[in-house]
Amino acid sequence: MRVHAIEAFDDNYIWAIETNNNDKVIIVDPGEAKPVQQWLEQKNKSIETILVTHHHYDHTGGIAELIKQSPCPVIGPENPEIKTLTRTVTEGDELTVGGIQWQVLTTPGHTLDHISFYTPGFLFCGDTLFSGGCGRMFEGTPEQFTQSLLKLRKLPGETRVFCAHEYTQANVNFALKVEPENAVLQSYAEKVRMLREQEQITLPSTLQLELAINPFLRFDQKSVIAAANKHAESVKNTPEDVFYTIRQWKDNA
Ligand SMILES: [Zn+2]
Question: What is the pTM for the complete model shown?
Answer without folding.
Answer: 0.97
